[in-house]
From TrEMBL:
Organism, scientific name: Streptococcus sanguinis (strain SK36)
Coiled-coil blocks: none
A cellular component annotation (GO) from this entry: cytoplasm
This protein's name: Phospho-2-dehydro-3-deoxyheptonate aldolase
Reaction(s) catalysed (UniProt annotation): D-erythrose 4-phosphate + phosphoenolpyruvate + H2O = 7-phospho-2-dehydro-3-deoxy-D-arabino-heptonate + phosphate
Function description: Stereospecific condensation of phosphoenolpyruvate (PEP) and D-erythrose-4-phosphate (E4P) giving rise to 3-deoxy-D-arabino-heptulosonate-7-phosphate (DAHP).
Boundaries of every DAHP synthetase I/KDSA domain copy: 34-333
InterPro entries (alphabetical): Aldolase_TIM, DAHP1/KDSA, DAHP_synth_1
Family: Belongs to the class-I DAHP synthase family.
E.C. code: 2.5.1.54
SUPFAM superfamilies for the chain: Aldolase
Amino acid sequence: MAFIEKGQKIDIEQIKSRTRLTGQALAHKNKRDQELAEILSGEDERILLVIGPCSSDNEEAVLEYARRLSELQKKVADKIFMVMRVYTAKPRTNGDGYKGLVHQPDTSKAPSLINGLQAVRQLHYRVITETGLTTADEMLYPSNLVLVDDLVSYHAVGARSVEDQEHRFVASGIGAPVGMKNPTSGNLGVMFNAVYAAQNKQTFLFHGQEVETSGNSLAHVILRGATNEYGKNIPNFYYENMLDAISYYEKMGLENPFIVIDTNHDNSGKQYLEQIRIVRQTLLNRDWNEKIKRAVRGFMIESYLEDGRQNEPEVFGKSITDPCLGWDNTVQLIEEIYNTLDK
């Protein structure tokens, strides 16, 4: 074995004890989680937005964004339900350098996992308790789920993780919605097999114990585009792509058909302003086809305080991973969605 033991032992329960939700904050989160479940099951017809920075690299910038988003949520709450992206393990795609808040809570200092774990809890906790929003995170490392399972309201399984059996099985035991992205190849069968596994009972080893899950009926798909053999992005948010996804739901007999359109990544080619066009086109397609309108009821949008991205954290609230919509463009887009719905 080539592993080298490094640093102090991590006491997860001790870390969690400092940032547990109680009282009014816990009741508020439970209420919003119930609303989210009703949106996924179709009882509530509001549009879901999973929206926020590509990667939560700076606590104060993320909180400033959360405060603004919380005020905007209040204005559109009758038609739109927002869960804020607080992605704490999101690295740069090639794995070079920055690997997310959990690895490097302070971008000016060396990586520190013990401090990173505390920073992850604190950030989710502060967003919930200080702004009233609930949060989403990517389940990059299933073993880390125990760190945030009581705080995170929406979990995403990424394109490079969706084929992994452990991600699928762990998703089947989560008591919250789990969005499964299509793999980078664009293979819908792989994604729907992941949803099937997540929606059904599973028995497996987790944290050294044999566990049995009851299945997660709120597991669903996220269409994020694909990359062909030449590295060219192939969008899959078009009319026919949505009908293909709906047909998979039907023939596999899956529960709660729900489709989220990821407006960035290979759908936009990481051209962040394209997110606006993708939302517009999807809303038009919903109006054109009743099946699409019933099933396609969510968007994943990468948005921060400033437009674009930067290599180093020099501009407050500007992404250091994938480019994001800035705040002004975000407000305009959400207002456009709101005004377009049920005209």
